[in-house]
Design goal:
The protein has 979 residues and is α/β, with parallel strands linked by helices. The chain has 35 helices and 38 strands. Strands 14, 15, 16, 17, 18, 19, 28, 29, 30, 31, 32 and 33 form a twelve-stranded mixed beta sheet that branches. The protein is globular, with a radius of gyration of 35 Å.
């Protein structure tokens, strides 16, 4: 039987058409056995069966006056009909999912029997793939359970059948089978749902269904008839009682040695035998005219057939054949349910209630005052499947990228970008607005929405700015989890970044101190007498034009080219990183130990979120793309001026391994129980400053058509938003339907000439008392940022983040000036004090603006020279008169042009506190010349990286950092002082 492509991929370590897995050997349909390790399996190649049918002739079953025969055209027709309907069902499902094919897994302990072969044959006839796991008859209960658990977690398996000796079918084993894969209907939960009548949530045990099919052939109904079920009180017997009673029959259940059995036999119109009859029990007491159906593994003794008063007895093969067909029908039904679950589902979201207090408590008190939903429940509410999340504790989970393939045909929702005016050092609340807007849309307007935020860096959390979970009644919870470590993505970036840094310096040292031969022997060692290249070494050989795979065949010249990267230490641009504001690492000297043999050089540390690996994480669209980007990262040049990459150093695969979990967005929730993705966290002043493409794309599919995804760009619109459009949108192929521009009266007063705002000190009275003149003058910055948004052709809604000291006159003035400047709308937002209810007006404005036609365009063409792209940003976005390149910057640009990197977009590293390069220049400075101190290349991320003025890529700690207030209660383990 031909295997589908999807399963070749899932089990590609085994050859197509191979064998089943066996602890005692790998077995095909024949009897040949050979050893195989436990824990590996493939598909069983099943031969097709002829159209003759598999039933055997046998005695009849009769109710009333009708008689059919097993093996007769009537019996074969019933099985053929089930097979044909199942085949048609699969064909129908494959119109939606062309690669779909249901898979049946059989776990066997002990020897084969006719039922096992019958299951395989009918599975083949229908067109199922079969995984057959053979365990020895002496295997333990735990070994069986372990196999079941593996199959439970395999999304490619749709049905699971246990072919075990009676002694191995314990309650523990049976109830290990996942409900949706329990096609034999043996679990307590399945039986319970059958009894309760949840028609779409259970499987009828195939043998019970077969008995009912046989009974259904009678001319007369079961209404009022007595059916005695003799055997065990297991799932089969319970199912039969339930099904018979639903047909109006009277079902009596008994065990073989029950004292009441003879009397029950005398009452019975039908007797169903579900287990082997003990030799000492006679059927002579059966009432004349009663029918007997035998489901047990052995044929009822000839003694019962010889009773003249008893109708002929049904052979167990009759029931087996029909049950096998119905079992496969259950597998197909399970597959259908799986396919249905793959489709987009409307949300059934239960939002959490807020009870805002006045005065508003601290952020951490508000966060702890709300009980978040279990994250797996939230995931289910928004349409995520159980195998698409990886739960981290109770309140956060990673989301697997397979979701994008499952929902690829679902139309995207509306895309909203939240940016801001030039902020004060305190920040103006973009994250708070993003959460408040999402809460308003989902919890109050009942519109699907997702907020996509960046992961906070430990640097500002313990430094001066504090956390980034939002604030007040518009925040992500638990805020401690959000602000501290989260799921470890930044740590993974730090580890990967510093592994590459270590590889660079180690390679420089080893090349300088070893001969070609010694290097080659160490880079391509002989292991157990065998010498071979790794896959990444073969790729390097191919880049060098050496198409050889035998290490012994390289010439001395080829060995020299292969082993010598010949890195020029003065050109190394790759820095080490740490996620802490540590100013004394801005310039360091490394290699001073005697063991480094004089290979000393100056370098520096950047903050972890400025790493190119963080930028790659935010811009990649999947694992394969991320691996390619990691390999392309340029760390410096060789002495001939050619770029040296992570691929050349052989470290790409290791970097990908360190990043394999970080690439998955983290699911959390807002205070009102609406979904939030947290992923990536590059600073907008020293990187591109946006949350990840993957988080946005997944969210757009989950909200569906008519829903909204609210994503945040870092700092002011002049840097975060500009990079969103020119870099992120180019990478993702998406563009937003509307820009929400966040402003505060506080920031506008600062731009209007108010005194300096300093973190950790009280605000001057100009910011706490009404001052319309400062507000009006400061709106120049707001108008400029609106103009910047319109350079890209996207409608703008201004969100005025209201503080308790703002007056109505100040609020009204800002909103009117914003509208006069071209904003689609401008509204006051009170989410900080009221939650989503305080941003309903903003949500309505965003809905209106998102339905406007946009005229999206990029600011510059990629074919423009690097210098002209820098100049365009400086003049059109910042308002500069011109740019000035340092000699080093010009030399770097010349080098990058020569190396073929001139067509990349530009990511400016510039202060976020001013439109200019000078933080003290507020409002809308003009006429300045923008100095470009240095230029770096982030080739893996895909941009050129100019450093403006004195901009540092390692922030420093202030005199009084936030960590003075952060503490842990050793008894309760509660964190204090985060906010």
């Amino acid at each position: 039987m031909r295997l589908s492509t999807v399963f070749r991929s899932a089990y590609r370590s085994f050859p197509t058409g191979s064998v089943s897995r066996s602890r005692s050997g790998i077995r095909a349909l024949g009897s040949e056995r050979r050893s195989a390790p436990l824990g590996s399996y493939s598909f069983l190649p099943i031969r097709d069966v002829s159209s003759d049918g598999s039933g055997s002739a046998g005695p009849a079953v009769r109710l009333g006056n009708r008689r059919d025969h097993t093996g007769s055209p009537g019996d074969e027709a019933a099985i053929r009909e089930i097979i044909q309907k199942s085949k048609e069902e699969i064909a129908s499902l494959q119109t939606r999912h062309p690669m779909f094919k249901p898979v049946l897994a059989i776990v066997q302990a002990g020897d084969d029997d006719s039922l096992l072969e019958m299951n395989k044959e009918i599975a083949a006839k229908i067109g199922l793939n079969v995984i057959h796991i053979c365990l020895p008859s002496e295997c333990t209960e735990d070994e069986i359970v372990n196999e079941i658990l593996k199959l439970n977690e395999d999304p490619k398996v749709h049905g699971l059948v246990l072919h075990l000796p009676a002694g191995s079918r314990s309650s523990k084993v049976l109830n290990t089978v996942k409900l949706e894969k329990d096609v034999d209907g043996v679990t307590d939960l399945n039986v319970g749902r059958l009894v309760r009548g949840d028609v779409n949530e259970y499987f009828v045990p195939p043998t019970a269904n077969a008995v009912m099919e046989l009974l259904g052939r009678s001319d007369s109904s079961l209404e009022g008839k007595t059916v005695v079920i003799v055997g065990e009180n297991g799932p089969l017997e319970i199912a039969l009682q339930c099904l018979i009673q639903r047909k109006g029959g009277v079902a009596l259940s008994s065990v073989w040695k029950a004292d009441m059995l003879p009397k029950q036999f005398q009452q019975a119109d039908v007797v169903v035998l579900t287990s082997e009859k003990p030799a000492e029990i006679s059927l002579s007491c059966l009432r004349p005219g009663s029918a007997v159906i035998n489901c047990s593994p052995t044929v009822v003794s000839e003694e019962s057939k010889s009773q003249p008063q008893c109708l002929a007895v049904t052979m167990e093969t009759e029931v087996e054949a029909l049950a096998a067909a119905l079992r496969m029908q259950n597998v197909v039904a399970s597959g259908r349910r799986w396919v249905d679950h793959q489709q987009y589902r409307h949300w059934n979201l239960r939002c959490l209630k807020l009870q805002p207090l006045s005065p508003v408590p601290s952020d951490i008190e508000i966060s702890r005052g709300q009980t978040p939903k279990a994250i797996d429940l939230l995931a289910k509410e928004i349409g995520l499947l159980a195998d698409e999340i990886e739960v981290y504790g109770r309140t956060k989970a990673k989301v697997r990228l397979s979701l994008l393939e499952r929902l690829k045909e679902v139309p995207d929702g509306k895309y909203v970008l939240v940016a801001g005016i030039t902020p004060t050092p305190l920040g103006e609340g973009k994250s708070t607005v993003s959460i408040g807007l999402a809460q308003a849309l989902t919890a109050h307007l009942k519109v699907n929405s997702f907020a996509c935020l960046r992961q906070p860096s430990q640097g500002p959390t313990f430094g001066v700015k504090g956390g980034a979970a939002g604030g007040g009644y518009a925040q992500v919870i638990p805020m401690e989890e959000f602000n501290l470590h989260l799921t470890g993505d930044i740590h993974a970036i730090t580890a990967a970044n510093n592994l590459l840094a270590a590889a660079i310096d180690a390679r420089v040292l080893h090349e300088a101190t070893q001969s070609d031969k010694a290097l080659y022997n160490r880079l391509v060692p002989s292991v157990n007498g065998v010498r071979k290249f790794s896959s990444i070494q073969i790729a390097r050989l191919q880049r060098l034009g050496i198409n050889k795979t035998d290490p012994e065949s390289l010439t001395p010249e080829e060995i020299n080219s292969f082993v010598r990267l010949d890195i020029d230490p003065s050109t190394i641009t790759w820095q080490r990183v740490v996620d802490t504001n540590d100013r004394f690492l801005r310039k360091i000297t490394i290699g001073q130990a005697n063991t480094e043999k004089g290979h000393i050089r100056q370098t520096q540390f950047d903050i972890a979120v400025a790493s190119e690996i963080m930028a790659i994480l935010a811009l990649t669209d999947g694992l394969a793309d991320m691996k390619v980007r990691l390999g392309k990262m340029v760390v410096g040049s060789d002495r001939k001026g050619q770029p040296v990459t992570a691929d050349d150093l052989g470290v790409t695969g290791a970097l990908a391994v360190l990043m394999k979990d970080a690439i998955k967005p983290t699911l959390m929730q807002s205070l009102e129980g609406t979904p939030v993705f947290v992923h990536a966290g590059p600073f907008a002043n020293i990187a591109h400053g946006n949350s990840s493409v993957l988080a946005d794309k997944i969210a757009l599919k989950l909200v569906g058509e008519g829903g909204f995804v609210v994503t945040e760009a870092g700092f002011g619109a002049d840097i975060g938003m500009e990079k969103f459009f020119n870099i992120k949108c180019r990478t993702s192929g998406l563009h937003p339907n509307v820009v929400v521009l966040v402003a505060t009266v506080r920031a506008l007063k600062m731009h209007g000439g108010g005194p300096n705002v300093t973190a950790g000190t009280p605000l001057p009275k100009e910011y706490t008392e009404e001052n319309l003149k400062l507000v009006e003058d400061g709106c120049s910055n707001l108008k400029k940022q609106i103009q910047i948004a319109y350079l890209f052709g996207v409608p703008v809604v201004v969100a005025l983040n209201v503080f308790k000291t703002d007056t109505k006159a100040e609020i009204d003035m800002v909103c009117q000036i914003a509208k006069d400047a071209g904003a689609f709308d401008a509204v006051a937002c009170h989410h900080w004090s009221r939650g989503g209810r305080g941003s309903i007006e903003l949500a309505e404005a965003v809905k209106g603006a998102a339905n406007q036609e946009d005229n999206f365009q990029f600011l510059y063409d990629l074919e423009m020279p690097i210098v002209e792209k820098i100049r365009t940003i400086a003049q059109k976005i910042y308002g500069a008169k011109d740019i000035e390149l340092s000699p080093d910057a010009q030399a770097k640009i010349d080098c990058y042009n020569k190396q073929g990197f001139g067509t990349l977009p530009v990511c400016m590293a510039k202060t976020h506190l001013s439109l200019s390069h000078q933080p003290e220049r507020k409002g809308v400075p003009t006429g300045f010349v923008l100095p470009i101190r240095d230029v770096r290349a982030s080739i893996g991320a895909g941009f050129i990286y100019p450093l403006v003025g004195t901009m540092s890529t390692m922030p420093g700690l202030p005199t009084r950092p936030c960590f003075y207030d952060i503490d842990l209660d050793p008894d309760t383990e509660e964190i204090t002082g985060l906010f």
